[in-house]
Amino acid sequence: MDFKFNVNRLLPRKINKVTHTLIPEDFRGDRREYNESQRQISRILDDMGEASAMAQGLSKPITSALKLRDTDHIVYLLVDSAGNEGLGSVVGLLKTGSKNLFMFDEAGAYFQLQPRCILDFYVHESKQRMGFGKDLYEFMLAVSIYLYLHL
């Protein structure tokens, strides 16, 4: 998905992590750049969330900037740095977060878990079946395993 701003400057890595702050993990800049980065990340999340909902046949998006605020959710954004005439384009999105799940044990008693789950997963239609989704998924797994082993 192409945007009018320089995606490569905003999201310098192939896969970039964004949390409730709506700022890329590697952000370095002043207050004005911080606000502009939040605005641009919000645009990316809203547009990619809409595209994901449409692709899944949902009536409303699962992912948006507003829905990311005040959560423990993490969004990984995959960038094609050569896209959009060198400005970069966002190819995919993978959102993870805790989810309340109710499970039953062998005796039939229920209990509650809050596992980390994939909440949204989307690769732009023009980039599907090229391994981009696999790259996103494997990156998320590697980060999750690393955090699990180092906590």
TrEMBL record:
Domain of life: Eukaryota
One GO term describing the cellular component: microtubule
GO molecular-function terms, A-Z: tubulin N-acetyltransferase activity
Pfam families, alphabetized: Acetyltransf_16
Keywords: Acyltransferase, Transferase
Stretches assigned to the N-acetyltransferase domain: 1-151
Keyword Acyltransferase in record: yes
InterPro entries, per database record: Atat, GNAT_ATAT
Presence of the UniProt keyword Acyltransferase in the record: yes
Protein name: N-acetyltransferase domain-containing protein
